[in-house]
Amino acid sequence: MKKIILPAFALVSIAIASCYYDKEELIYPNSGSCKGPTDTMGVNFSNVRTIIRSKCDGCHLSGGSSGGFNFDNDCSIVYYWNEIKGSCVQPYSLRQMPTSGPLSSSEQSQISAWVNAGHRYTD
Ligand code: HEC
User: Fold this and answer.
1) Which residues surround ligand 1 with Cβ inside 6 Å?
2) Domain residue ranges in the chain
3) For residues 94-119, b (16+ Cβ closer than 10 Å) or e, as one string?
């Protein structure tokens, strides 16, 4: 009996695990790929995250996705680094964001610093 139960248990565990990851990927694109389980948030990324959370609120946070961009998940910030740079750092290659006016030069420098450091969660 044990011989049957153990492999069956293993199969069920694998099935549950893959189901979980499938769903997470659907809700948060790239959430599985931007950081490892032991990775810690980098200082540069943390600065950018703070800017996004204060300056993109109302349109791209709390479920908002103006223009198709939502930054609720940290990995979506990592994934869209090029779009964030293009819309927030001069010279703009996309529509300037936030819509109310440009970020301060200090904020733009912090985004550039993160991009130049490698634009990862750990940078
Ligand atoms: C008041 C609402 C508002 C705020 C605040 C805002 N956005 Fe947007 N954003 C929009 C809208 C609306 C669009 C779509 C523009 C369009 O399609 O004409 C957009 C589009 C974008 C795009 C796509 C631009 C393009 O040319 O395709 C990016 C990237 C973006 N926003 C990033 C940001 C970032 C990063 C912040 C914060 C620093 C921010 N936005 C703040 C409303 C906002």
Assistant:
1) 52, 55-56, 58-60, 66-67, 69, 83-84, 87-88, 94-95, 97-99
2) 1-30, 38-117
3) eeebbeeeebeeebbebbbebbeeeb
